[in-house]
Amino acid sequence: MRFLALVQNEIMKINSKKQSVFFLYFCLVFIIGIGIANRIAPDLYATREYLKFAHSLASFLMIFVTLFAIVLGAQSITDEFKDGTIKQLLLRPVSRRTILLSKYVANLVVIIGTVLILWAASMLIDVLLFGMVRSGGLTFGTVCKAYLYELPDSIFMMTLSFFIATVFKSSPLSITASVFLYIAGNVLSSLLPEKWGAKYIIFNNLNLKVYDPNPLISGGMEPPFLGMSFGFSIIMILVHIAALLLIQIVIFEKREVY
Questions:
Q1: Is residue 184 classed as helix, strand or coil in its secondary structure?
Q2: Which of 15, 137, 139, 218 yields a CA-CA distance of 20 to 30 A from 248?
Q3: SS3 state at 42
Q4: Helix (H, G, I), strand (E, B) or coil at 41
């Protein structure tokens, strides 16, 4: 119960920040704006069909979510040092490990909640502007998968940003390094030969859409290396997340706080 109270408190901290509210408003305005543009100029955007609009927005919205997750992960711990509240936080009758994990879980809850809100908003605007007459092979499940397959990428990038921020106590460094790896990591890691164990590199495992047999989701793409599967990539993601959390917990527990 104490852990849940800590998580709830961290979620309240996140929601009290203007940037969190601004991000949500920005995404909602973006969805409405693109929807109206599709309604007014269907020949230009070619998504004037039920579900096609929500499906086409998934990748763009999840890019925004990932960038938000990176900032969220970086600031959740560094803001405590910057605002001088870290000492008060550590005076609580709970371990440092519990405090760190409560922040991490709170970030997870906010990210998942944000994705659900944006998914629901895109579906609602889709119905309001384009009705419910479906054509083509898109289904409700296809649209849901488009968001779900992108979610582990956002969660890992938040974990990476959270890790860098905890280790170096620098929000700018964490955000810069994480954004760089988010943009270039997949490209750079895919250039490594398979014999060097490239399939075990996390960035080659974050695109889960390639494992879906539906071309509307996978886009015709295939796994970058032989021997990779959906289960393999999920395991690689979980192993990397667990390793980053374990390392930063050890570092945070031994850190001197002045």
A1: helix
A2: 15
A3: helix
A4: coil
* DSSP label of 158: H
**H helix and E strand count, the chain:** 11, 0
Q: Is 224 helix (H, G, I), strand (E, B) or coil?
A: coil
User: Do residues 106 and 5 make contact, with C-beta atoms less than 8 angstroms apart?
Assistant: no
Structural tokens at position 157: 């990038």
Question: Which carries the bigger pLDDT value, residue 223 or residue 47?
Answer: 223
Q: Is 133 exposed, middle or buried (0-12, 13-18, 19+ CB in 10 A)?
A: exposed
Please give the full DSSP string across 77-114, using - where no structure is assigned.
HHHHHHTT-HHHHHTSSS-HHHHHHHHHHHHHHHHHHH
Domain positions in the chain are 2-254
Share of the chain above pLDDT 90, in %: 38
Residue-wise pLDDT tens digits, 29-66: 999 998 888 777 655 555 556 778 888 888 889 999 99
Q: Give yes or no for a contact between 151 and 169, defined as CB atoms under 8 angstroms apart.
A: no
Q: What is the CA radius of gyration of the chain?
A: 20
- Can you tell me which residue has the tokens 């096609």? 52
With a CB cutoff of 8 Å and minimum separation 6, the contacts of 211 are 218, 223, 229, 230, 233
Question: 236-257: string of b/e by CB count within 10 Å (b at 16+)?
Answer: bbeebbeebbeebbeebeeeee
pLDDT at 213: 87
- How far apart CA 82 and CA 89 sit, in angstroms, is 13
Other C-beta atoms lying within 10 Å of the C-beta of residue 43: 6
CB contact at 8 A, 113 and 199: no
Please report, as a single letter, which amino acid is at residue 82: K
Is pLDDT at 201 greater than 60 in this prediction? Answer: yes
